[in-house]
Every structure is written in structure tokens, then in C-alpha cells.
Specification:
With 229 residues, the protein is an alpha/beta fold. It contains 8 helices and 11 strands. Helix 2 packs parallel to helix 3 and helix 6 crosses helix 8.
Length: 229
């Protein structure tokens, strides 16, 4: 999943960016409202973490403008203002949840997981195909009785593939949802990552789940389509 973090305090932005990436979320960071709106216009995000107090425009205005343009991803608003009216106006501007500073990292991550499960694009907690299972709450990945040890990047790829079971996903789509703008992957980064994940997922006794369609991309499915490698 890909998150846009909008925070103008450099130390906090750096810290939260590291926390989110360690939680297997590809994270882009914007320090102003204008930069946030530009990023939201260019990229497809699954979640937005939006600070209320930004130097050029308030987080409420950013949220209001983005919603007016059709933005639908869940928004968690961060603020030092804890009054009821402040929370109400933030929610009315289009935010989905509100978290007051200072906050515990565990609560931030829990709220983001909760937002990821909400409509209009509900994201399931338990994802599975054949004997491959992924629990987004515990971050546990298993193939049958075999628990898989995966890196944060490998987990992000598996979650993305599992949310698109039966659909071909291109290399560009994988780059968008698994990497963020702070990383400049080498030309074959996607192929290398898929290869690592395939070796962990598809054991010698398992049916093959991750298929390569030349010139198209990758497919996670219990049966290989014609022409798949």
C-alpha cells in the first residue's frame, strides 16, 4: 500500500516516514499543502496522513480541495488542536479520522489499519488464495502450515498481488504501490523482487501461484493462464 504523509515538521516527518516504511507501506512525504495537492494529482494513494497545521494552507483546505477533485482514499488528520469543534470541522472537510498530537506510534498504525478496511474501497484483513494466506493485522504470511519470513518490501508486494488475485498487474503498477518516490529502483528491481517472493511462496510441494505473462506483467492465481511462464 502507498501512503502520502503531509507533515511540515522535518524531524517528525522523517521519523513517521521511517515508521511507515518499516510497517511495509510505501511512503511519500510532502511538507506543504501545495506539494500535497500536486502529489495527490499525480499519484494513486491508498491512504493519506495529513497534518492540520501546514505553512501555506491548512490541512482542512487541502482535504476539501482534494475531495472536490474526486479524491477517495481515507484521510487521517493529525493535529495539536484537540477541541471538539476542531475535530468536527476536520471531519466535515472530508477527513475520515482524527489523531491528536502527541500520539503513540502503535495507535497511529492501528488507526491506519482500521482506515484501510473501510469503504469505499474496503481492504480485507485476511487475504488468501489456494494455501497462501496473509493477515494484515499480524503481518503473518503462510503457505499452508509453512510460515514465510518476508521483508517489508516482499510483504508489500504479496499484499498488492493478493488484493489483485486473478488480475494481471504491470511492472509500473507494482512500482507505484510497492515503492515510493524516495527510492529509485534499478531497471529489473520488480523482476528481482518477484523472483525472491516466488521462491518463498512456491515450494516444491505447492502448486505455482505467481505467474509471469511476458509483455504484460504478473498474475497471482491458482491456475496458470495460457502462455504464462
Amino acid at each position: 500500500m502507498r501512503i502520502l504523509l503531509v507533515e511540515d515538521e522535518p524531524d517528525l516527518a522523517t521519523f513517521l516516514g521511517r515508521v511507515l516504511r518499516e510497517a511495509a507501506w510505501a511512503t511519500d512525504v510532502a511538507a506543504t499543502g501545495a506539494a500535497a495537492l500536486e502529489a495527490l494529482a499525480i499519484n494513486e494513494y491508498d491512504l493519506v496522513v495529513l497534518d492540520l497545521g501546514l505553512p501555506d494552507m491548512g490541512g482542512r483546505e487541502v482535504c476539501r480541495q482534494w475531495r472536490a477533485r474526486g479524491g477517495r482514499a481515507p484521510v487521517l488528520m493529525l493535529t495539536a488542536q484537540t477541541g471538539v469543534n476542531d475535530r468536527v470541522t476536520g471531519l466535515d472537510a472530508g477527513a475520515d479520522d482524527y489523531l491528536a498530537k502527541p500520539f503513540a506510534v502503535a495507535e497511529l498504525l492501528a488507526r491506519l489499519r482500521a482506515l484501510a478496511r473501510r469503504p469505499p474501497s474496503p481492504l480485507d484483513v485476511q487475504l488468501a488464495v489456494d494455501t497462501l494466506t496473509l493477515d494484515t493485522g499480524s503481518r503473518r504470511v503462510a503457505r499452508g502450515e509453512r510460515v514465510l519470513r518476508v521483508t517489508a518490501r516482499e510483504y508489500a508486494l504479496l499484499e498488492y498481488l493478493l488484493r489483485n488475485v486473478g488480475r494481471v498487474v504491470t511492472r509500473a503498477q507494482i512500482l507505484t504501490h510497492v515503492w515510493d518516490d524516495n527510492f529509485d529502483p534499478v531497471a529489473n528491481a520488480v523482476d528481482v523482487l518477484v523472483g525472491r517472493v516466488r521462491r518463498k511462496v512456491d515450494g516444491p510441494e505447492d502448486c505455482r501461484l505467481i505467474h509471469t505473462l511476458r509483455g504484460q506483467g504478473y498474475l497471482l492465481a491458482p491456475e496458470a493462464p495460457p502462455g504464462a511462464a
